[in-house]
UniProtKB/TrEMBL annotation:
It comes from Crassostrea virginica. It comes from the Eukaryota. This is Uncharacterized protein LOC111112614 isoform X1. The keyword Transmembrane applies. The gene is LOC111112614. SUPFAM superfamilies: P-loop containing nucleoside triphosphate hydrolases (SSF52540). Residues 1093-1221 form the DZIP3-like HEPN domain.
Amino acid sequence: MLECRGKGCLVLVCLAIILRSNEHYGKVLAMGIVHRVRDCPRDEKEWQKASDRLNCTSGDSSTMNKYHCLPADNLTTLLEFCYTRTRTQVVEGQCMVFIERKHIVNNYDCSMFKEGCPNIWYFMDQMYRFPACFEIDPLLHCYKAEATCQPTTWNVSVLSDSSQSTFVNKTSTNLTTADRNNREIDPLPILLPLIGILGIAVIIAILAWKNKWRRKRFFGRKETGRPDGNDEELRAFEMRPIEISQPERDDEESRLLGLEVNEISQPERDDEESRLLGLEVNEISQPERDDEESRLLGLEVNEDIDRLGIDYLIHNLPSDHRTFPMIAEKLKIPQEILYWSLKNREKFVRSMKVGNIRVFNGRAMVIGCARAGKTTLVKKIKGDKDLTTTSTSGIEIHSHTFKLNSDESTIIVSTDEEKEKGCLCLAPGMLEILEENTQETSFGVNVNVVPDQSNVISPREENHIVDKASSLPSSIESTLNSNNDEVVDDTDPAVNESDQLINNLTAAAYVSAGTDRSNATLEHNIDLNDCVPSVNRDNLKMLTLLDFAGHSAYYACHHIFFSPRAFFILVVDMTKDLSTVATEACRKEGLIYSNWTYADYIKYWLGSIHTYSSKVAPVILAFSHSEDNGADPEKALQYFRQICKCLPQNLLDHLDKRRIFSFQKQSEKNVEDFKECLAATVKSQSHWGERVPISWTKHEAVLKKLKESNNVVSFSDLLRYVSETNDRKRNKEEDLLNALIFFNDTGVILFRSEIKDIIILNVQWFVDAFKHIIFDEIHMEVMEDMRDFAEFQELNEHGLLSSKVLIVLWQNSNFYQHKNSLVNHMKHLDMLAELSKELWYVPCMNKQKYPWEILNNCNVSSRLCFLFEFLPFVIYHRLVVTCINKLGMTPWKISERMCIYHKVTVLSYKDHRVLIAICDNKERPHRNFPYSIEIQINVTKPREIDTRLTSKLKEDIFERLSVLTQGILSSEFYSYVGYRCRLETFGKNVESHIITEEEMSASEYDCLKCSHPHIVHVGSIRRFWKKDEAQTHLTVGSRTSSSHPFAATEEMTNLNRVSRLMLGPCTEQLRDLLRLYIPPASFPAVIQRKRSQLKRLTEPQRKLILPNSGVYSGNYDDMDISLLYILLRNVCGIQAHNKGWGNTPDSADISVSANIERLRLARNRCSHTTEGMSNVDFNQVWSEIRAAVVDLDKVLGIGNKYQEAVDFILNDTMDPVKDKHFRDQLLEQIKDINDIRKKFERIEGRTKKMMAN
């Protein structure tokens, strides 16, 4: 047996030698055989000959399997091959090279060539047009056309397409075509395999003869000279290698083994045979024993793992640590877990069974004005001695990682190894022990998710791409207690952990600009099967510090990175008087922040935190440049009080006098106290120590792996490959979506659920791409000598970005390769607007002053004002962009010049023009809401403004503002809508103030806010924005003379319109949703299984779906909204939203259950109201219903069916008789529910009394 294995080994060795001998002949790759050549063809004719020689595809009609001849990426040789993938279009200024070790092509920036660099776009199989891209110096590893590549005369061995080498003088002229193509058939590829096969045959014959001779001699002696019992001795000899072979065996043991084997041999054996046998055993038995023992041990371990599952870890592990990789692979766990103590492994197993770990990872952001000392402060925290810094001319985000010390009292700098661990890291102290859950699982098989997950998944077709992260129902059943009395829900949520998350995730190496597939492609062949979570033996508790650098022009995208999970360090130069203008922050005149004081900037930063992060996000004040007062705490407290006087009351909630520190550049004073404050602050946050699904650790490992070679990945790719790892795609989809949102909040990636299919893996890369667009004046000075300077000027002054300028700005990076992905992401984040396929508008770059005279010959409406506590500059930009991208508006042009300005934009819309402006109202009457976004409609005289259009525009803009601020916690400003007191053209120097809607209850308003009091005729101001009375078919008499509760007042019409919506499209949509989860044909069987969960049905409801005789046979058309809610909640297995069924969901939660809940609450609100609904309430309720309907439309996959119905009812006429009919229907439903509630409460009361007795 041993000899047979030895023969097998020899055969394998010979084959390896043969394969190795052919290594220089050609490599068989995905694209065929790659040949090394002396030179590449230099014209189309010779290129075609070479293509025919290799049997590559010819002709322009085919784009695949084309002939390529490229330098190797190390510039040492030239390679030719047939490229089986689609040929790539190469941008100007780039040559192409081939990376042998990865089997992909790559680009090479040839801008440093003295001549010959491609100056046009070309296809990769047309390289013969640019000979300079072939001419390389193999010794110096450079292109000869590069100025730094000095030619020398030397001899180098260049491999041709045979294994022979030819010496070539590198300073000689190019080879002739005959020399290049004169390739005779090389005999080596034929002779070497034949020689190898003959050699193997000879070796096998010799071994067979030797074996036969040895067996004959050996067994002949056994028959004549072996004592009785030697059979047992022989068996002992044959088994001994398995019994005594240990991995720890040293050389001495091997020697003794050889002696022992020799002693077991027969005494009559001659010395020569004993010597040969001893040598053979010593030479062969040791590795064979090891292999056999490892095989048997592996079989035993595999059987134990199959039997015990993850519980295998809580038993004694093999002492042979060489089995650990196999165990880790079998269990799909990090190998480091196997080195943990038994106690910690037990904790890990329990955590695996409940599927969650505790996460201790905080995030802080360092913000402040330019030159305030942010970078210096971070260096002091890190303990750097060199505090030299340079001013940042572009937006940059520098990430610094710290960890809490052993007693968690302060922070210390993390090691490089710890930085690589990620935000989710397995450690003994982070595993949550929940003893009550005993369901077995394993890492990568069925891991349960933490029960309070909110988002859910859609039961759509297998390869349907997700449109929104939260519009996805789940097939998972959930158990959540609820205070609601209509339904009982006793199911249990679970989610599968992602096992082998992505397999062989691949994409084309390089894609021509504007053609990137699915918005994002992976640049390399990546095998993600070996991705395992990070592990640390210490219980690392981490803090990531983001140093957010840049000037005011770059504030356009800082809000993207503000997260509710972060706290902030606001750095303020203590030497600055708060009332002086911060000239170094903005040097450009005429901008909204040109004359801002230091107090204004502090208010701006705190307002941004309050708006985009959290109303309670802690802010630590760091006062720099305190050398004059020696960093005296008393002086710092006095400066802090001055700041507080400049701030509105609600911003003071972010500050605390215990969180103020002053610093001197050359002193360590207060640094340690500051670090202790950072540790205490991060530990005080609500998410510190939160539980997340353990499967997310695997997701993070995959994202880190992808980030090594990719900046962007499409969500559809991730979703597809995640789905392939498990049957239960829905769970995978939900788990991945929730994880991506978590990683976005923690700063690992950039991902927005409302952006369909783009995941930015490298956040700084995305910022750098935008930074190249929003360059500053310093960059403009460099560009003045360029050909297209006028187009650069358009971008710098007007914010108009042309495709030509974008190519130049992104040409020396890989941004343009991902043009579609980047531009689409910036569009979705409202950072720019698409005016055409070749032109975009970047609002934050616009520096033009608005000339109000352009509207001199126009009729104008009153000004509709949306009031804000804090400067909504980003919201203003986003509103302008969304009006262009979503509402179909276009910039108005005068004399071929677009009317877009720094603080004003004029857009054309249906023969009207819409002026959108942002105003800074610092007058005393507006101190509570000092900022406003104002809308004014205008038309050219003598045309009149269509008030039906303006009223509709008000609703559309209101809705868009609501969408733009979804997730912004301080969005209650929409209760504050007002109008300017005078009907004047915007920008005209006429004093006016804002009157809120609440102040305009009467027909006239006495405006005392202006310096000269005047009377405002409310009707003349509001008429532009109110619905035309003719639209509602209501008469004046019906409004004034009727006192009936259903009289057609505006408030009652609002209420009845909502009632009509609930009983019509909303009810029908819920019916379709029930049909999606339970087809009517399956309903009788399902309802019988679930009837125990439907204890609170009313009698009519029970008779309908559970009749005494027969079964329900309808199509759900006879079910009202109340019954539909009960069935969707209890029977369909839809996972509850994060607040639980029956409770008001979070405003940011757009899961299926949350949207169903909103429709139920809107129904109840209509039924419980008898006095009508104000315009403000109506707009809010309608907006919420419409958003829920839009999300559920996407779940159903039916386009905009019910959204269109909602929009139709909003503008349709209302009949008072129909109004009453809808109200009566809702009231009847509520009456039935109230009756059953009272009955249940009586029964519950009796039950409690009986239990008490």
